[in-house]
Amino acid sequence: MAYDEELAERVRDTVEPGPDISERKMFGGLAFLFGGNMGVAVSREGGLMVRMDPAAAADLVDDRTVTPMVMQGRELDGWLRITAEAVAGDRELDTWVGRGARFARSLPPKKPKR
Fold first, then answer.
1. CB within 8 A of 66, min separation 6: which ones?
2. What global pTM score does this model have?
3. Cα(96)–Cα(75) distance, rounded to whole angstroms?
4. What are the domain boundaries of the chain?
5. Angle, to 10 degrees, between the axis of helix 5-14 and the axis of helix 90-106?
């Protein structure tokens, strides 16, 4: 299953343009990078993957619309999976994208690959 193009376009509309933003197809989805650090991705499984401070992420899990992200059977600290229903509204999408962007921008920028 390919990622949701409509959701990807909504994320693009939410992200403030800037020289530190890039997109990269990864894991069958579309990742949005801030200073080279992934902050949010449109998942091929639907919804979003959002990167956050691990201490804050645990408090947002509701086990229905927000769950810890699991890859290859391993839970990833600081990564959440957000269902499409949880970002159906513009305000909700803006909130989740903002969380991912703020965290990614708080990390040291990565040098661009040549």
1. 60, 80, 81, 82, 83, 86
2. 0.92
3. 19
4. 5-106
5. 70
Given pLDDT bands bounded at 50, 70 and 90, which one contains residue 76?
very high
CATH topology of domain 5-106: Aspartate Aminotransferase, domain 1 (3.90.1150)
DSSP 16: P
Vertex 102: Cα angle to 54 and 43 (nearest 5): 70
Provide the pLDDT confidence category of residue 67 given band limits of 50, 70 and 90. Answer: very high
Strand order in the sheet with 37-42: 21-26, 29-34, 37-42, 48-51, 74-82, 66-71
Query: How does pLDDT run across 14-36, given as a tens digit for each residue?
Result: 998 888 999 999 988 999 999 99
